[in-house]
């Protein structure tokens, strides 16, 4: 038995089923509670749009549910780990398994296997569902929960709240459709700024198209800040250094792209000589994020061992919870540092994972093996 990593088939299935049931129970509880709180905050804005009703509230809930499930799945695995191991310990099942010759790693093996499968499911779920929900929900929020085009999230589709810089000047648009020279901007604002960043004039237009070079504003209205006067113009060309390729790059939303699409976007940014640290850190985190579920049984394993009658079971559970939540804190901090260029993207995404993997193994080996 000591030469086998997994215990018997019966015991493996027993522990795996117990673990999966608790993961689902905790995840459903967390998603329902958080979704209810989110709906309390967002329902007023949804119903404020003309024509919206219960169907739109349900649509919002359907878009937020995948986001919440993806974000809190690792937390669910952590809490399910603690609940499972504490239950096994209280019922003296861990004592029975160790008396039968199983090592601490063999006791945890079914939970680690289950967590690995959860990580794979989480990655596929993020790529197929969460990215599309991100794109659609951001577009809907940008449209103030009004009607949105059907092309959101597709190649060459619609992007919202585009913010572009042309030197010290700024070009913003409510929506962007098309690609390349066929790009059309709507609800456009052009800000002409002085060297100190002070706005000299603001130009608004309903529509802008590529003028080769620059962007032609149709029926623009110019407001001069110094004189506080408004002027209607027949046509105006702005942003002559903003090429269609540059606009395509600047209007990218990494959270709305799949793993492979984000890799292609990073390559395009590098060819254009643009900064890619933030996107590359998020690209690596697409892998390390779901794998965090694999760490949770290891970090929570401190709750599995030690006699329940010693009175330290609750303390052990708190220690396991603290280790798990410490990982999430360090992971978010490292990802933020990687996005700002403080850490290399690979290190920002993977250093917390390997750090807590070694920490969990060290604690397990020194205390139980």
UniProtKB/TrEMBL annotation:
Protein keywords: Cell membrane, Membrane, Transmembrane, Transmembrane helix
Any one GO CC term of the record: ATP-binding cassette (ABC) transporter complex
Location (main, coarse): membrane
Transmembrane stretches, start-end: 20-41, 72-88, 108-125, 313-330, 342-365
Pfam families the UniProt entry points to: LptF_LptG
UniProt entry tagged with the keyword Transmembrane helix: yes
Coiled coil: none
Intracellular or extracellular location(s): Cell membrane
InterPro entries the record matches: LptG, LptG/LptF_permease
UniProt keyword Membrane, yes or no: yes
Topology term for the membrane: Multi-pass membrane protein
GO process annotations (BP): lipopolysaccharide transport; transmembrane transport
Name assigned to this protein: Lipopolysaccharide export system permease protein
Species assigned in the record: Erythrobacter sanguineus
Lineage, broadest ranks: Bacteria, Pseudomonadati, Pseudomonadota, Alphaproteobacteria, Sphingomonadales
């Amino acid at each position: 038995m000591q030469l086998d990593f997994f215990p018997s088939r019966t015991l493996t299935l027993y522990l795996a089923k117990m673990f999966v049931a608790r993961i689902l129970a905790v995840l459903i509880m967390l998603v329902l509670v958080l979704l209810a709180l989110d709906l309390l905050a967002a329902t007023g804005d949804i119903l404020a749009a003309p024509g919206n009703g219960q169907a739109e509230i349900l649509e919002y809930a359907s878009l937020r549910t995948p986001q919440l499930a993806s974000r809190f799945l690792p937390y669910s695995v952590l809490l399910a780990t603690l609940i499972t191991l504490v239950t096994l310990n209280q019922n003296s099942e861990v004592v029975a398994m160790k008396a039968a010759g199983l090592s601490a790693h063999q006791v945890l093996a079914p939970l680690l296997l289950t967590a690995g499968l959860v990580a794979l499911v989480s990655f596929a779920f993020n790529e197929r569902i969460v990215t599309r929900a991100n794109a659609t929900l951001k577009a809907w929020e940008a449209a103030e929960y009004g009607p949105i085009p059907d092309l959101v999230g597709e190649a060459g589709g619609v992007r919202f709240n585009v913010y572009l810089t042309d030197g010290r000047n700024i070009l913003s648009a409510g929506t962007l459709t098309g690609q390349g020279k066929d790009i059309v901007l709507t609800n456009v604002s052009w800000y002409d700024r002085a060297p100190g960043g002070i706005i000299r004039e603001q130009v608004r237009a309903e529509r802008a198209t590529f003028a080769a070079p620059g962007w032609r504003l149709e029926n623009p209205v110019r407001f001069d800040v110094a004189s506080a006067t408004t002027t209607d113009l027949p046509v105006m060309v702005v942003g002559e250094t903003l090429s269609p390729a540059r606009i395509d790059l600047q209007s990218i939303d990494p959270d709305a792209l799949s793993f492979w699409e984000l890799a292609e976007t990073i390559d395009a940014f590098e060819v254009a000589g643009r900064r890619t640290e933030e996107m590359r850190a998020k690209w690596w985190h697409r892998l390390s994020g779901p794998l965090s579920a694999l760490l949770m049984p290891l970090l929570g394993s401190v709750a599995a061992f030690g006699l329940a009658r010693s009175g330290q079971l609750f303390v052990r559970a708190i220690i396991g919870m603290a280790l798990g939540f410490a990982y999430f804190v360090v992971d978010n901090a490292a990802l933020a540092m990687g996005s700002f260029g403080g850490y290399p993207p690979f290190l920002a995404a993977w250093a917390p994972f390997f750090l807590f993997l070694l920490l969990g193994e060290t604690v397990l080996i020194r205390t139980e093996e």
